[in-house]
Amino acid sequence: MQKLAIQGGTRLNGEVRISGAKNAALPILCASLLTCDSLQLSNVPDLNDVATMRKLLQQMGVKIELSGGQVVLSAAHIDKLEAPYDMVKTMRAAILVLGPLVTRFGEARVSLPGGCAIGSRPVDLHIKGLQAMGADIHIEHGYIHAQVPQGTGRSSGSGGGRLKGARIFFDLVSVTGTENLMMAAALADGVTVLENAAREPEVVDLAHCLIAMGAKIEGAGSDTISIAGVEKLHGASHRVMPDRIESGTFLVAAAAAGGDITLTDARADILENVLEKLQEAGASIQAAGSTINLKMSKRPKAVNVRTAPYPAFPTDMQAQFMAMNTIAEGSAMVVETIFENRFMHVQELRRLGAQIEVEGNAAVIKGCAQLEGATIMATDLRASACLVIAGLVAQGETIVDRIYHLDRGYEHIEAKLSALGAQIRRLK
Ligand code: UD1
């Protein structure tokens, strides 16, 4: 198993290019299933989750051409309307094929994701939404079987009928739930209104891609999205938005370790909450065009964070801020309101000497002057990023084990950090 060895105590200086967003690329790759024409994507990040999604789509019959960050997908001939357990268990986002398959072909068989390290994460909202649009859904042997009854007016040569537009209220804000139903509604008969929809920028990026494919969508980025279904979608070109979580992770790393870094190909307008918190910690931040510069010359001040759906503080940045708070001046409280078990990194941070108390969904972190390097283990994607940041500020060597989690969501992280001056190498 691969590990990262980090020699802590170096400041970060220089420029780093931000990759395309994983959480935008994954649903957009699935949008290729909605048309028999080609979808041309650029700025697609080179990540394990993206490779898993490509493999899943290829297994269904999608033809894919790759060249650097460019991906051309053609779903002209789909022979398997199925996402098997092996794929869905390694990447929950595989559930995003459900909406496109059901709406274009009238049927699908997708494995239930099961639990994961950060909580139970059910997909009941995806299922209820499709049922409201007329799909018959039953769960059998761990698989979601969805079928739209025949004779409901689909003219393309698919096996099942056509979904109907519906008014759908989400009990909880769900990012992939909103994306799945937005894709399903794009080809449904009539108008679908999604209420209490996710407002995340990745939902908006998917909507832009779907609109370029001929979908009629209004309100993406607000909590009410209205989609007027069309008979057919066509090919399009789309550039995947920059990754706001990767951006935030590098900024927190520099705020914790000290230094002067500039992100290029980034977007400050979708990071407002994170940038405000970094300024509160004492960092100076300048954003201009697609660059964001952060300067930090002192020990950070402790900052409280409370996660909530966008535009509030993202749960995917919680662990990284926890790492910064471990060496900050003062005490901070971190409250996690999205996932029930997203404090797995706390035990590992304690092994480096961090002082953290957890009570339910709140963690109180008492900043200490110095962490000490040790061997620690990554448990999920963002927890891994948190441990890398802790390794960058700890005294001596930190070994981060099980970094396959990191490779799911961060493109060439050790190369990018090395270019900023970090002493970090991969042990194979
Ligand atoms: C997406 C992101 C993930 C991020 C999360 C929250 C992708 C590929 N992943 O995950 O990085 O951490 O949003 O911002 O975009 N829930 C239900 N029933 C459902 C769906 C969700 O109860 O049918 C619950 C979840 O358990 C969780 C909350 O709703 O407590 C939010 O989850 P959701 O927004 O759906 O997360 P994902 O879309 O899986």
What does this structure look like?
With 428 residues, the chain is α/β, with parallel strands linked by helices. It is 32% helix and 26% strand. It has 14 helices and 24 strands. It has helices at residues 22-31, 48-60, 85-90, 98-105, 124-132, 175-186, 201-212, 244-257, 272-280, 318-326, 345-351, 381-393, 404-409, 413-419; strands spanning 3-7, 12-17, 38-42, 63-67, 70-74, 82-83, 107-111, 136-140, 143-147, 167-169, 191-195, 216-218, 224-228, 236-239, 259-264, 284-288, 291-296, 305-306, 331-335, 355-359, 362-366, 375-377, 397-401, 423-427. The strands form 6 sheets. The protein has a 4-stranded mixed β-sheet with strand order 22-23-1-24. A 4-stranded mixed β-sheet has the order 2-15-17-16. Helix 1 runs parallel beside helix 7 and helix 5 runs parallel beside helix 6. The model has no long low-confidence stretch (mean pLDDT 95). Bound molecules: uridine-diphosphate-N-acetylglucosamine (UD1). Uridine-diphosphate-N-acetylglucosamine is lined by residues 23, 26, 92-93, 119, 121-126, 172, 174-177, 202, 315-316, 338-339.
What layout of secondary structure does this protein have?
Elements: E1 3-7, E2 12-17, H1 22-31, E3 38-42, H2 48-60, E4 63-67, E5 70-74, E6 82-83, H3 85-90, H4 98-105, E7 107-111, H5 124-132, E8 136-140, E9 143-147, E10 167-169, H6 175-186, E11 191-195, H7 201-212, E12 216-218, E13 224-228, E14 236-239, H8 244-257, E15 259-264, H9 272-280, E16 284-288, E17 291-296, E18 305-306, H10 318-326, E19 331-335, H11 345-351, E20 355-359, E21 362-366, E22 375-377, H12 381-393, E23 397-401, H13 404-409, H14 413-419, E24 423-427
The structure holds uridine-diphosphate-N-acetylglucosamine.
Uridine-diphosphate-N-acetylglucosamine is lined by residues 23, 26, 92-93, 119, 121-126, 172, 174-177, 202, 315-316, 338-339.
